[in-house]
Write a structure and sequence with these properties.
The complex is a heterodimer. Chain A contains no helices and eleven strands. Chain A is mostly beta strands. In chain A, a hairpin with a 2-residue loop joins strand 7 and strand 8. By secondary structure, chain B is mostly beta strands. In chain B, 0% of the residues lie in helices and 52% in strands. Chain B has no helices and twelve strands. The radius of gyration of chain B is 14 Å and the shape is globular. Classes of the chains: A mainly beta, B mainly beta.
Chain lengths: 115, 114
């Protein structure tokens, strides 16, 4: 299996620009998670989908962040407008089941730098 | 509330020495427990997991962990550390039917001295 695939691996943008991060979960997995990792705050859950439906988005920092999962094989995380404090590594992870009980499979992450 | 504590931010060990990374959790029910490893520039990879049964679980790369309910702990151990074990290690609790689903510790960074 190809694993969880994220793109882009690296993104450098200027403040105010729109950023779109993409994720392809492992085929057959029905739960998908977006995490953000920074030195200061560690690993933070942004949003969790189950069967393409957002279950918990309480971790989304503010209205500038939005996430979609139009089908079982694709999800996006969008930041508009981006700010320097959004600089972080964003991970997508997927698992089989409702979450909490199975192994999370992580992508390699998207490193975002906002200047 | 659910939480995971990894009291050691950074640990340094010599190659060949034994290793123990600590993890304490707070969860109201029987927990699903995980240890993940993150190499630089990579995502997290599962080392081992505990759901039920034998409280000593074996994982990949020669790691093991022991679940101690009385101490709310799930410490990770390895008898002899290799230089390639240098990485960040995360303990996690699986919490089905909660919003977060998984609660991660803040991680322990391991340095291995040749």
């Amino acid at each position: 299996d190809a694993g969880v695939i994220q793109s882009p691996r690296h993104e450098v943008t200027e403040m105010g620009q729109e950023v779109t991060l993409r994720c392809k979960p492992i085929s057959g997995h029905n739960s998908l998670f977006w995490y953000r990792q920074t030195m200061m705050r560690g690993l933070e859950l942004l949003i969790y989908f189950n069967n393409n439906v957002p279950i918990d988005d309480s971790g989304m920092p503010e209205d500038r962040f939005s996430a979609k999962m139009p089908n079982a094989s694709f999800s996006t995380l969008k930041i508009q407008p981006s700010e320097p404090r959004d600089s972080a590594v964003y991970f997508c992870a997927s698992t089989l089941g409702a979450g909490g009980t199975g192994e999370l499979f992580f992508g390699e992450g998207s490193r975002l730098t906002v200047l | 509330a659910q939480s995971v504590t990894q009291p050691d931010i950074h640990i340094t060990v010599s190659e060949g020495a034994s290793l123990e990374l600590r993890c304490n959790y707070s969860y109201g029910a029987t927990p699903y427990l995980f240890w993940y490893v993150q190499s630089p520039g990579q995502g997290l990879q599962l080392l081992l997991k505990y759901f039920s049964g034998d409280t000593l679980v074996q994982g990949i790369k020669g790691f093991e962990a022991e679940f101690k309910r009385s101490q709310s702990s799930f410490n990770l151990r390895k008898p002899s550390v290799h230089w390639s074990d240098a990485a960040e290690y995360f303990c996690a609790v699986g919490a089905p039917n909660t919003g977060n689903q998984f609660y991660f510790g803040t991680g322990t960074s391991l340095t291995v001295i040749p």
